[in-house]
Design a protein that fits this description.
174 residues, RNA polymerase sigma factor, transcription, sigma factor, RNA_pol_sigma70_ECF_CS, RNA_pol_sigma70_r2, Arc Repressor Mutant, subunit A, mainly alpha, Rna Polymerase Sigma Factor, Chain: A
C-alpha cells in the first residue's frame, strides 16, 4: 500500500486554485465553491494521483472539469458570464485603481478561452505545455490564445487611453 498523500500540499495550492477559479467563474463566491468542490473530488480520487507528476496541473484539471460540468448542467453559465460587466470607474483621484479597473474591464471582454490561457500562463506561471494538458488542447493552441489575448489587451488599453497614448507609443523618436 502506497503511503503518499496530497493533503500536505493542498494548503499551498489554494491561492492558485482560487485565482484560477476566479478566472473561470468571475466571482469570488463561485470561485470558492469551485475550489471546495475541487478539493473534495481530489481527496476522493487521491489514489488516482500519480506521485512525481505535477499536483497543481492535476488539481487545475479537476477544477476546470468541475466548472465545465456546472456550466453544462446550468445551461446558461456561459451567457451569464458574458453578460456580466465590471463595475463603473473609480474617481480620478485613485489613478492606480483606475488603471487596474481598465485592465479588469479589458480582461473581462476577452473570450473565455483567451482569458483562461492568459491567466494560467501569465499569472499562475504555468508553461504552455502544462496549460495545454489542463485545458485538453494542443500546446500551439494555448500559445495562439495567449498571443491573441495579449494583443487584444494591448489594443483595448491603447484605445481606452485615447489617441495621444497611441501616437506616443507608435511614433516615439527615441
Amino acid at each position: 500500500m502506497d503511503s503518499f498523500s496530497i493533503r500536505p500540499e493542498l494548503p499551498r495550492l489554494l491561492p492558485a486554485l482560487r485565482a484560477y477559479g476566479r478566472t473561470l467563474a468571475r466571482s469570488a463566491a463561485a470561485a470558492d465553491d469551485l475550489v471546495q468542490e475541487t478539493i473534495l473530488r481530489a481527496l476522493r480520487a487521491e489514489t488516482q494521483f500519480e506521485p512525481g507528476t505535477e499536483l497543481r496541473a492535476w488539481l487545475f484539471t479537476i477544477l476546470r472539469n468541475v466548472w465545465l460540468g456546472q456550466a453544462r448542467k446550468a445551461g446558461r453559465e456561459r451567457r451569464a458570464l458574458e453578460a456580466q460587466r465590471p463595475e463603473e470607474s473609480r474617481p480620478a483621484s485613485q489613478g492606480d485603481r483606475l488603471e487596474l479597473d481598465e485592465l479588469a474591464r479589458a480582461m473581462a471582454e476577452l473570450p473565455l478561452a483567451q482569458r483562461e490561457a492568459l491567466m494560467l500562463v501569465g499569472v499562475q506561471g504555468m508553461t504552455t505545455a502544462q496549460v495545454a494538458e489542463v485545458v485538453g488542447v494542443a500546446e500551439g493552441t494555448i500559445k495562439a490564445r495567449v498571443s491573441r489575448a495579449r494583443s487584444a489587451l494591448r489594443a483595448a488599453l491603447v484605445h481606452r487611453a485615447g489617441p495621444d497614448l497611441d501616437r506616443t507609443n507608435t511614433h516615439s523618436s527615441s
